[in-house]
Amino acid sequence: MTNAVVVGSGPNGLAAGIRLAQAGVDVTVFEAHDRPGGGTRTSEPTVPGVLHDDCAAFHPTGVASPFFRSLNLERHGLRWRWPEFDLAHPLDNGHAGLATRDRAETARSLGVDARSWDRLFSGATTHFDELIGEVFRPLAHLPRHPVTLGRFGLHAVQPATWTACRFTDDPARALFTGVAAHAFGRLDTPLSSSVGLMLTAAAHAVGWPVAEGGSERITDALLAELAALGGKVITGIRVTSLDQLRDLTGRRPDAVVLDTSPHAAARIVGDEMPDRVRRAVGRYRYGPAAFKVDIAIDGHIPWTNGDCARAGTLHLGGTAREIVAAERDTVRGRMSKRPFVLVGQQYIADSSRSNGSINPIYAYAHVPHGYAGDATEAIIGQIERFAPGFRERIIATSTRGPAALEKYNANYVGGDISAGANTARQIAFRPRMTTNPYALGVRGVVLCSSATPPGAGVHGMGGFHAAQAVLARM
């Protein structure tokens, strides 16, 4: 029987294992951590019974993923839960822009820019399934929906600062720029609109849901599906070479799928990797980092704008101009006094995460790559800026800086939870410029992590496409 080893049990690794097992391949997944899941784990770092997502928290790409949808993971207990408002972006004057599946609510929050916003996103929202089918694949492919992809591409290639200029008032400009900042990069460069356009269209089309009981429930469902197909996961083993896999399995696997960083993949493949591939992988760049703070509070955050109390995700950074400046500083290695901060109120949609009146708050700031300082006060300060009195409700905090994030997940090099800088080149071609971005130059050995198309997010599509590449060669 054909056998395959998957190194790493994040969503992409598990998706690759499932797709190979569907094709009758004997699959073993090795995970260095004592718990599988990569970025989709949940824990209780503040107060017992209060659940915090360790990394990935909101899942527009998960609920939209063509491969996840094909698996019907609800059979294994996965339940998506949506807040009333998917996303809010408050401003100092008390106004807030909203992005929700309710177009009327979005229009209400954006005022004079409602029509311009609708013109920009109506096409992508209406044809969202077609769009996802195109952008969740490598750039070099024959499109099935060229008109949908072409219209999206005309806007996606523009700098986010250009796209924001379509709007005349602060709520719309800030709302879009905040979503674009999910790229963890400069917002005045080509293709920096792409992430913002896709994630905003997702907010309108499918929402930004959470997994009931925590993001770990996504891992649990994928593990159950893999087990049902005969695959197995072995934790507590860090794979460092292809020779080690021979020792672990008794023979050289027919296929090896690496859910690792490109640099780790080069170390594992070793001298078998052709020089041209090694040089290309060596040029792969990592981007800014996250500094994460989990906070347990008594009651709710006292937002100045009432709509924010009903939103699952909030972007805190002030105006579009402030966000652009903060992201530029972060890319250049300077810690901003007012960094871009993402706040999650998952419990608004999923009360199982709370313990009585004690609720979990998820927050992280964008900080320079490898940042060694403490951004806790900067994060709390940004929340207090838009919710005076927040500090008084804090019961406990738990922090993870860039070094701790990398220790938690080796793919987060320097604290980069996107697993690679989202420069124009690496948005279009990651991890290297080639027609098969999963190949590593060694027959049967492929890369499937977030460093491959379609990039970061809990969607499993990198794993699916890497597995398809393996099956095509079998």
Automatic annotation (TrEMBL):
Among InterPro entries, the record links this protein to: FAD/NAD-bd_sf
Signal peptide positions (record): none
Q: Which domain of life is it from?
A: Bacteria
Could you tell me what this protein is called? NAD(P)/FAD-dependent oxidoreductase
Species of the source: Gordonia aquimaris
